[in-house]
Amino acid sequence: MKGGRRKHTADFKAKVALAALKGDQPVADLGARFGVHPNQIHKWRKQLMDAASAVFASAAGDRDRGQEAVISELYEKIGQLTVERDFLSGRSGR
């Protein structure tokens, strides 16, 4: 038995998952070839299939998410400044 858990790189996982998606070899053979349990190969294959649509997502969608983050940050700053202004105006006797 090998000692400890092995950590595989994302490149290795993608390579194994793509080989499993090809379907030209049984998963058991791939497991023996790459030294990974077949159940793990099935998990990586499923993860690849679930995340494949993200590869083709439009850049506009990414840009919109970035703008939403900036807008929410600005709203937080506005709220903070409003609270500070109200606190300081209350102390000055207005």
List the helices and strands and how they pair.
Elements: H1 10-22, H2 27-34, H3 38-55, H4 59-91
Q: Number of helical runs?
A: 4
Q: How many domain modules?
A: 2
Q: Hey, roughly how much beta strand do the residues contain?
A: under 5%
Order of helices and strands: HHHH
The end-to-end span amounts to 76 Å
Low-confidence stretches: none
Number of strands: 0
Major β-sheet, in short? none
Tell me what the structure shows:
- Helices cover 77% and strands 0% of the residues.
- With 94 residues, the protein is mainly α.
- Helix 1 packs across helix 3.
- The model has no long low-confidence stretch (mean pLDDT 87).
How do you describe this structure in short?
It contains four helices and no strands.
Which descriptors would you attach to this protein?
single chain; 94 residues; mainly alpha; Arc Repressor Mutant, subunit A
